[in-house]
TrEMBL record:
Sequence segments annotated as region (Disordered): 253-273
Protein name: SAM-dependent methyltransferase
Keyword annotations of the record: Methyltransferase, Transferase
Pfam family, one: Methyltransf_19
Domain of life: Bacteria
The keyword Zinc appears for this protein: no
Keyword Magnesium carried by entry: no
GO biological process assignments: methylation
GO molecular function: methyltransferase activity
Length: 273
């Protein structure tokens, strides 16, 4: 174990010999829950593609802006956040419940280290609800069944799929998962997605993904703008549409005129009419 607090520990069925996405993502974000192998693979990727840390930070910043928009402007009070990641600063329930304490959030992940931490750390406000489901994104039926104890599917829900559809290797399967989730929620619900792309980031990004797929798990698939757009079928894309997630509503939130550097991760939010 290698994290600054001695590694994640405590979780069953953890393979400490293979780098795993949730832990490497936590390492790139400056967290402390990772093993030596995660640091080694994470450092190699940074060596090949230094912008990867910025991708992780921009993705989390997108999460904050998207949740603030959804709560303040779209009136959303329920979130289904699939591919939660290890708890870090500004998790979905913290952002939402700070504005609307009655917000209800269901987190879903299939990583045993995330499971070990999430139940302890993702504790919400007394007025709202925060639940954690151990499930695979490939199985939307199981996710919906598990979430219905906490979320009311007759009222709008925001489905959050940030950095997770890239771990569903077939695009048709990824589309079917999103379609099934959207079917289960009523008009006024929203879909927020971030996803890596090789259309931004150049050859270094492609090299980093090749390295990841040879040395770490689960394997990652990048997608084109057109493939990313297809996940939003049946929704109305909100302004500014599909952009690098670093740019989504960045200026709108009063961050000044200057845009931050583009990162190789698309971000968008759609509304189910
Ligand atoms: C790149 S992290 C993103 C975390 C967070 N959504 C964010 O944007 O910061 C991806 C997360 O998806 C989880 N994950 C990967 N494949 C999954 C699957 N098939 N089912 C559920 N979770 C999965 C990983 O364990 C990891 O926590």
């Amino acid at each position: 174990m290698d994290g600054r607090n001695g590694g994640p520990g405590g979780a069953a069925l953890v393979n400490e010999d293979v780098a795993h996405n949730a832990r490497v993502w936590n390492y790139w974000l400056g967290g402390k829950d990772y093993y030596a192998v995660d640091r080694q693979v994470g450092d190699h990727v940074v060596g090949v593609y230094p912008a990867i840390r910025e991708v992780a930070r921009a993705d989390r910043a997108f999460l904050g802006r998207a949740v603030r928009y959804l709560v303040r402007e779209a009136g959303i009070r329920q979130f289904l956040d699939i591919g939660t990641g290890l708890p870090t600063a500004e998790n979905t329930h913290e952002v939402a419940q700070r504005i609307a304490p009655e917000s209800r959030v269901v987190y879903v992940d299939n990583d045993p280290v995330v499971l070990a931490h999430a139940r302890a750390l993702l504790v919400g406000s007394p007025e709202g609800a925060t639940d954690y489901v151990d499930a695979d994104a490939h199985d939307p039926e199981a996710i919906l069944r598990a979430a219905e104890g906490t979320l009311d599917f007759t009222r709008p829900v925001a489905i959050m799929l940030l950095g997770i559809l890239n771990f569903v290797s077939e695009t048709d399967r990824a589309r079917a998962i999103v379609r099934r989730l959207l079917e289960a929620v009523p008009s006024g619900s929203h879909l927020a997605v971030t996803h890596p792309t090789l259309e931004l980031g150049g050859e270094a990004n492609a090299e980093a993904m090749r390295f990841w797929n040879e040395h770490a798990t689960p394997p990652i698939t990048a997608r084109s703008r057109a493939e990313f757009a297809s996940f939003f079928a049946g929704t109305e894309l909100l302004e500014p549409g599909i952009v690098s997630c670093a740019h989504w509503r960045h200026a709108t939130e009063g961050n000044g005129a200057g845009e931050p550097p583009e990162v190789a991760q698309f971000g968008a939010v759609g509304r189910k009419p």
